């Protein structure tokens, strides 16, 4: 066998293995999605969105858990977004080659891959133990800590993609450093930064472990940030493990809602990223 035939054979084998691996992964993903859809859609009705979590054997929905999840996730992103964007700006614009920047990037990478249950335990010791009770504030802080590294990394990467000649052109016109960043760098990287914020929101939307140690759960509708607050991940965890069939059906419907929400956020982020790339090419 000559060298060209050998290369062609290796290429075909590599393509075949890659195709089989892709099909294997997509097969299990399809099975999971079908199971989730078939079991979760049975309890997907108006009551699910209008009534609170019921006691065993009674009719009810997930309205308090849906509200709690949306409320805590939104508050966590409101805390994490400005902190993450500012930190990513510092790493990309001011500390590219400094030792402090290298240390900050290393710490951020560690936080990015840290297990969420560790962060939940950290916030438990930091807030729940001193306060003496679980609270929505503690859950919000735990979710914000998980979201910040994602936003820092995406902001940093988006700003580094902005060509330096744009900054140099603005500086040559006499613009100060802060004006160059806010008017040139942010404007050029806004699509990537917004995509990072949405990806961080998708990341925290399905987190269960940190909320078990912080916000826990609430059987009733609550808007008090100093009290435990219902949320979909913990309700799904508790109801799925219960022996009651009606609770298990609600858990499947809650899982379907979270999956649909995360899918929608990810698709929106991808569309924004692709539109941003198309605009830059023009």
Automatic annotation (TrEMBL):
GO terms for cellular component: plasma membrane. It is found in: Cell inner membrane; Cell membrane. It is a multi-pass membrane protein. CDD domains: TM_PBP2. The chain crosses the membrane at residues 12-37, 65-91, 103-122, 134-152, 193-216, 250-273. The keyword Nucleotide-binding does not apply. The keyword Glycoprotein does not apply. One of its GO terms (molecular function) is phosphate transmembrane transporter activity. GO terms for biological process: phosphate ion transmembrane transport. Residues 66-269 form the ABC transmembrane type-1 domain. Keywords: Cell membrane, Membrane, Phosphate transport, Transmembrane, Transmembrane helix, Transport. Belongs to the binding-protein-dependent transport system permease family. CysTW subfamily. PANTHER family: PHOSPHATE TRANSPORT SYSTEM PERMEASE PROTEIN PSTA. This is Phosphate transport system permease protein PstA. It comes from Varunaivibrio sulfuroxidans.
